């Protein structure tokens, strides 16, 4: 039997200022009828380019340089609009990352669904409307008739992605391409969207091409996974074999670097487990009481209390809107609290206005590491200047050998090669920028480091290295960490104690190993259950259930 | 430093239009500096027997109704026109960028208030405002500068405010504060330098606009008085003769105006490429 | 709908302070002006000291400044804008008689500019890098560089002097043509109402040159804006969605791309319109157009300040009105504003 989609030796070039760059270097893949294939890879691996090639949505700079794409046996590699138009949406369709931007902002969603239906079937507006209601119902949107008139900005991100799914399945295509469909969504929303996708495709007998950077997600929902690296498919196997006996060296690294329920920071990078940290006498460092912050009338943080000892690391987890980033800004004294107290080293620092805190002796004691490393470095400062800035400002160092020595020392501690210090942010890789950001934070010798999603924007292999670095730094220097993250696995590995937040309130607090093994609050349990993970026996059962349902 | 020069060279090679615009601007500056010395005739000396001559080898741009050499007048006028535009733009840039940056950084009610005020002001017929201002302050050249500066102000405030606003919550701004910089230092040392490239483009475009405005005012008979050579006033004097076919009286100073504005506009686009560090490889 | 009305209402209220500011400005204008205002309002240059004193008292110039401001605000509220020295008429009457000429010119120019600029911008964006795109970009670059007064004069030279196609560039209608009875003051409308197509043609041919001059002036920014926003929208995610789900090219461009691309064009319409009001002064002078701007300019040059005050006030009111209309239009076009 011929396969539904066959890609053979596909090569794609992008025209850039420095001449053509090969994005795909001979990719071969195939998807059978009703099959789910996952394509996993880090940024720059070419996984999205592959998907866009199939739909022929490459932008002007991209060009298919060689190879073939066959859909239902027909070669569509160089097909024109006339051939493609009836296929797109009707035989194969696609959903995208960032669903809110993928919908027309000034057209009601009901009409957008109807647009797709009427592009492929000659039906009346009334019929299209009825079909749209049925589709919204099928993607489990409550009160579908009322939702027809809604605009994308009136819906949550998860809802928008469901509308997108409704549009994509409207004409019963036989292939659905999902390009990072849950990136940017909260973990619980991610689970509902992915479950919906899996169930819908299984029930309608649709094949799915799931493109994701998350190995766990692919393993949970796909029958087969292709691993891509730098424009090539390095390995293709069912999840069990990929996890059990990965064949390619890159796959082995990727599997190891993807945090799982039993990973440790050392296991991510394949390093030997470090000695357990020696017990230290309890010495309170940070004491937060009844902390509250209101923006207008909305409370972003509401009566949160916690404490942190010197040298301890405390995790702060929650979904978007939980107030975790606000808390990190409050503790760093970049924002003024509306109520409550923040005591550092027994001293009340919550009362010092944020606008004057830069003169406080505690400024150098509390430092911050940021989320998006592309945005956390001043584009007009070299790496050296970025690291030197706190030394100049907080320690009053003057330019000269002393300053240079301090900057080089900080760079060495974070493993940043000295010859990169003269470079500007746009000349550094994501991992290198992360290191500069960490070096800047530790340069002035802080005692508390607030880490706000320090690895959220990084590829898993880079994340593994950065996490290992952060863990080593803490063991060496006795820094205390306040580690803010949406990723529960990362927090479990990095933190001794964990706090769970929901809509600005504290839900649960406890020692990490206890909290993750036996959560007391139902919300924590829900969060834990939503983490995509690979469990062979469970996965098979789910697939069977989905087909039966 | 040599890397910067290499980058500039690279941009100019890929962008010959910018190079030409740069040369044009250089020419104008030269004309402004040396105009009175290199002009072939005295720009204000009348020679009635030679009045209203069409362009010829002796008088490249012809002569006007008093027999004055139009080419010399156009050349000498460059100084006054460029000086008006440059002083007006630097005034509004200095005030506007500072006010806009601090408002954009501070946010809150003051910022919202300033923002709305600027929006309202921008939608006002600014040229009319400038006219009224020159009328009120007195019909003098420096008042043309003030009027042009004031009507340019909202653009700078709005622009720098928006540019700072999108950056105020970026990691490196918060990091700057965590590194011990005060709010004022964050704005002056971190935000302003990052906004400058975009501002430079704005300044260049604005210079053109300021020239047009000043020339428009003097065309109406405000500010500069005859017989001072100035492009706008020369067009106004030539306008009387257009229906009798004496085109050079309008076309030559008009072309000088267009050339000036065109050069500044094209230079603005080129500047953006040169000053943006992300383009440097 | 209520959201839109609320937004428009808020915007209207927020433009009131600006209007008040303009009022204070025009008041100060009169105070700061060199010379004694009372002399302007006196019967003539030979007026005696007693008469000037009398006028001074009647005008309230002997009272303290804040009280004078209040008196001035009261006068404006009751429609008393003073009397023009040059025409001898109340300023309000003069403005009322000349406003239609200015508006007719501005609206025609705006129409011409929109009809040309929007399609050009769209076509250029649909084929970036094509000959048409380069042409439009060149037109935009050159268009913003040409001062209105120069382009107007050159148009006169070419079309009137060289080719003889255009009529004598003075005034709204040929002095020998019959003037249609005044109903709205808009010659084109009045002539059409009277069924006098000869007069309509005479007025229209008089209008073409100044309207084109002014249209040229705003053509470039409008086309540039349309092109840029259309380009941005064409590479946006939701247009890609439309393509991916097989919508026809026409539908993607007209319903998905174009409607979104026109939103920023609507927002700058207010600014474009008010720039045109400003450019009116120059165009009306070049073409001896009997509008409010040339009226104010003549008054300004002969140190007759009441008309200038009235003119600035009129401009301010028009601009408040135009912004209100733009806000309402935008509210109808973009559903997102009702929450913002």
TrEMBL record, chain A:
Q: Where in the cell is it found?
A: Cell inner membrane
- The residue ranges of the ABC transporter domain are 5-255, 286-528
Xref: Gene3D superfamilies: P-loop containing nucleotide triphosphate hydrolases (3.40.50.300)
SMART domains for this protein:
AAA (SM00382)
Query: Could you name the Gene Ontology cellular component terms for this entry?
Result: plasma membrane
Which PROSITE patterns does the entry link to? ABC_TRANSPORTER_1 (PS00211), ABC_TRANSPORTER_2 (PS50893)
Extract the coiled-coil ranges from the record.
none
Gene Ontology BP term (one)? transmembrane transport
Q: Which domain of life is it from?
A: Bacteria
Q: ATP-binding: present as a keyword of the record?
A: yes
Any one Gene Ontology molecular-function term assigned to this protein's record: ATP hydrolysis activity
Keywords on record: ATP-binding, Cell membrane, Membrane, Nucleotide-binding, Transport
Q: Membrane topology per the record? A: Peripheral membrane protein
Q: Which family does it belong to?
A: Belongs to the ABC transporter superfamily.
Q: Which PANTHER family match?
A: DIPEPTIDE TRANSPORT ATP-BINDING PROTEIN DPPD, OLIGOPEPTIDE TRANSPORT ATP-BINDING PROTEIN APPD
Its recorded name reads Peptide/nickel transport system ATP-binding protein
From TrEMBL, chain B:
Domain named ABC transmembrane type-1: which ranges?
A: 78-268
Matching InterPro entries: BP-dependent_transpt_permease (IPR050366), MetI-like (IPR000515), MetI-like_sf (IPR035906), OppC_N (IPR025966)
This protein's membrane topology, according to the annotation, is:
Multi-pass membrane protein
GO cellular component terms, A-Z: plasma membrane
Q: What sections of the protein cross the membrane?
A: 16-39, 82-105, 117-137, 143-159, 207-227, 247-268
Give a yes or no for keyword Iron in this entry. Answer: no
Which Pfam families does this entry report, sorted A to Z? BPD_transp_1, OppC_N
Q: Which family does it belong to?
A: Belongs to the binding-protein-dependent transport system permease family.
Name this polypeptide is given:
Peptide/nickel transport system permease protein
What organism is recorded for this protein?
Belnapia rosea
Automatic annotation (TrEMBL), chain C:
Molecular-function annotations in GO:
dipeptide transmembrane transporter activity
- The source's domain of life comes to Bacteria
Q: What kind of membrane protein is this, topologically? A: Multi-pass membrane protein
What protein name applies here? Peptide/nickel transport system permease protein
An example Gene Ontology CC term for this record: plasma membrane
Q: Which CDD domains match?
A: TM_PBP2 (cd06261)
Ranges annotated as spanning the membrane: 12-33, 103-126, 138-163, 199-220, 261-283, 311-333
Would you identify the family this protein belongs to, as annotated? Belongs to the binding-protein-dependent transport system permease family.
- The organism is Belnapia rosea
């Amino acid at each position: 039997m011929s396969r539904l989609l066959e890609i053979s030796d596909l090569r794609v070039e992008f025209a850039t200022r420095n001449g053509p760059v090969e994005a795909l270097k001979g990719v071969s893949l195939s998807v059978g009828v009703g099959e789910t294939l996952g394509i996993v890879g880090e940024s720059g691996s070419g996984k999205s380019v592959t998907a866009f090639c199939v739909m022929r949505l490459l932008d002007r700079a991209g060009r298919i340089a060689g190879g073939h794409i066959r859909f239902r046996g027909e070669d569509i590699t160089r097909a024109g609009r006339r051939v493609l138009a009836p296929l797109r949406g009707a035989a194969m369709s696609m959903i995208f990352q960032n669903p809110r931007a993928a919908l027309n902002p000034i057209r009601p969603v009901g009409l957008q669904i109807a647009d797709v239906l009427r592009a492929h079937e000659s039906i009346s507006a009334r019929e299209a409307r009825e079909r749209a209601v049925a589709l919204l119902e099928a993607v489990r949107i409550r009160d579908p008739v009322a939702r027809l008139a809604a605009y994308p900005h009136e819906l949550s991100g998860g809802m928008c992605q469901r509308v997108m799914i409704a549009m994509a399945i409207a004409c019963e295509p036989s292939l659905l391409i999902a390009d990072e469909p849950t990136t940017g969504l909260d973990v619980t929303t991610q689970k509902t969207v992915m479950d919906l996708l899996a169930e819908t495709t299984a029930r309608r007998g649709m094949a799915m091409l799931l493109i994701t950077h998350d190995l766990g997600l692919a393993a949970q929902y796909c029958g087969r996974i292709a691993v891509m690296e730098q424009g090539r498919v390095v390995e293709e196997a069912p999840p069990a074999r990929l996890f059990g006996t990965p064949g390619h060296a890159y796959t082995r690294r990727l599997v190891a670097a993807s945090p799982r329920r039993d990973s440790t920071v050392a296991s991510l990078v394949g390093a030997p487990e470090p000695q357990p940290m020696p017990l230290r006498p309890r010495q309170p460092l940070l004491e937060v009481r009844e902390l509250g912050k209101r923006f207008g009338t909305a409370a972003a943080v509401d009566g949160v209390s916690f404490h942190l000892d010197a040298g301890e690391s405390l995790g702060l987890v929650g979904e978007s809107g939980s107030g975790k980033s606000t808390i990190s800004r409050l503790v760093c004294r970049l924002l003024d609290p509306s109520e409550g107290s923040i005591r550092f080293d027994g001293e009340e620092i919550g009362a010092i206005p944020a606008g004057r805190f830069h003169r406080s002796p505690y400024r150098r004691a509390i430092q911050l590491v940021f989320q998006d490393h592309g945005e956390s470095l001043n584009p007009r400062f070299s790496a050296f200047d970025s690291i030197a800035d706190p030394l100049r400002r907080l320690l009053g160092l003057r330019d000269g050998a002393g300053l240079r020595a301090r900057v080089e020392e900080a760079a060495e501690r974070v493993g940043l090669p000295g010859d990169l210090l003269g470079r500007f942010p746009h000349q550094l890789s994501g991992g290198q920028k992360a290191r500069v950001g960490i070096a800047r934070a530790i340069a002035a010798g802080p005692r508390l480091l607030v880490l706000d999603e320090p690895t959220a924007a990084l590829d898993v292999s880079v994340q593994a290295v950065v996490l290992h670095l952060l863990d080593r730094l803490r063991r060496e220097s006795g820094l205390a960490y306040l580690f803010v993250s949406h990723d529960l696995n990362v927090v479990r590995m990095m933190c001794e104690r964990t706090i769970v937040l929901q809509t600005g309130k504290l839900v649960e607090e406890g020692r990490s190993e206890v909290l993750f093994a036996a959560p007391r609050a139902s919300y924590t349990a829900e969060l834990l259950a939503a983490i995509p993970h690979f469990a062979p026996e469970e996965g098979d059962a789910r697939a069977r259930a989905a087909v039966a349902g | 430093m040599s890397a910067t020069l290499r980058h500039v060279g690279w941009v100019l090679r890929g962008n010959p239009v910018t190079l030409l615009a740069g040369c044009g601007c250089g020419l104008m500056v030269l004309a402004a500096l040396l105009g009175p010395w290199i002009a072939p005739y005295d720009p204000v000396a009348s020679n009635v027997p030679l009045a209203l001559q069409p362009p010829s080898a002796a008088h490249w741009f012809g002569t006007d109704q008093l027999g004055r050499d139009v080419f010399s007048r156009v050349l000498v006028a460059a100084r006054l026109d460029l000086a008006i535009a440059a002083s007006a733009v630097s005034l509004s840039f200095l005030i506007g960028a500072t006010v806009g940056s601090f408002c954009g950084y501070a946010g809150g009610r003051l910022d919202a208030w300033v923002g709305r005020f600027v929006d309202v002001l921008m939608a006002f017929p600014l040229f009319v405002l400038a006219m009224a201002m020159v009328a009120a302050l007195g019909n003098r050249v420096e008042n043309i500068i003030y009027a042009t500066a004031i009507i340019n102000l909202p653009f700078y405030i709005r622009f720098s405010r928006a540019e700072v606003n999108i950056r105020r919550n970026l990691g490196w701004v918060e990091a700057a504060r965590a590194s011990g910089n005060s709010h004022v230092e964050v704005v002056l040392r971190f935000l302003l330098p990052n906004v400058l490239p975009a501002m430079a483009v704005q300044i260049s475009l604005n210079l053109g606009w300021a020239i047009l405005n000043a020339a428009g005012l003097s065309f109406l008979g405000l500010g500069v008085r005859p017989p001072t050579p100035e492009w706008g006033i020369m067009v106004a004097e030539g306008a009387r003769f257009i229906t009798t076919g004496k085109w050079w009286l309008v076309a030559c100073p008009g072309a000088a105006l267009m050339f000036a504005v065109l050069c500044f506009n094209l230079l603005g686009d080129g500047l953006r490429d040169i000053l943006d560090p992300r383009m440097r490889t | 709908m209520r959201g839109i009305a609320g937004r428009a209402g808020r915007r209207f209220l927020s433009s009131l302070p600006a209007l008040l500011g303009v009022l204070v400005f025009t008041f100060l204008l009169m105070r700061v002006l060199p010379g004694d205002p009372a002399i302007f309002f006196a019967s003539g240059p030979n007026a005696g000291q007693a008469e000037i004193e009398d006028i001074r008292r009647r005008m309230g110039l002997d009272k303290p400044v804040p009280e004078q401001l209040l008196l001035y605000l009261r006068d404006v509220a009751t429609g008393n804008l003073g009397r023009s020295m040059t025409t001898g008429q109340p300023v309000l009457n003069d403005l009322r008689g000349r406003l239609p000429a200015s508006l007719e010119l501005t609206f025609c120019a705006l129409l011409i500019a929109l009809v040309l600029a929007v399609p050009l911008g769209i076509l250029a964006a649909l084929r970036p890098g094509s000959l048409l795109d380069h042409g439009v970009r060149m037109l935009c670059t050159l268009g913003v560089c040409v001062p209105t007064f120069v382009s107007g004069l050159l148009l006169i030279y070419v079309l009137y002097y060289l080719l003889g196609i255009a009529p004598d560039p003075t005034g709204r209608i040929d002095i020998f043509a019959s003037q249609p009875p005044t109903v709205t003051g808009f010659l084109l409308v009045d002539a059409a109402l009277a069924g006098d197509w000869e007069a309509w043609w005479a007025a229209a041919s008089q209008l073409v040159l100044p309207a084109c001059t002014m249209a040229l002036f705003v053509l470039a920014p409008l086309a540039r804006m349309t092109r840029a926003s259309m380009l941005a929208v064409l590479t946006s995610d939701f247009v890609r969605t439309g393509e991916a789900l097989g919508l026809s090219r026409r539908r993607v461009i007209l319903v998905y791309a174009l409607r979104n691309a026109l939103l920023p064009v609507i927002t700058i319409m207010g600014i474009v319109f008010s720039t045109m009001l400003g450019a009116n002064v120059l165009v009306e002078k070049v073409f001896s157009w009997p509008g409010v701007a040339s009226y104010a300019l003549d008054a300004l040059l002969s140190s007759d300040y009441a008309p200038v005050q009235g003119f600035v006030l009129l401009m301010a009111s028009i601009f408040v009105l135009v912004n209100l209309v733009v806000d309402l239009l935008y509210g109808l076009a973009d559903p997102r504003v009702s929450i913002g």
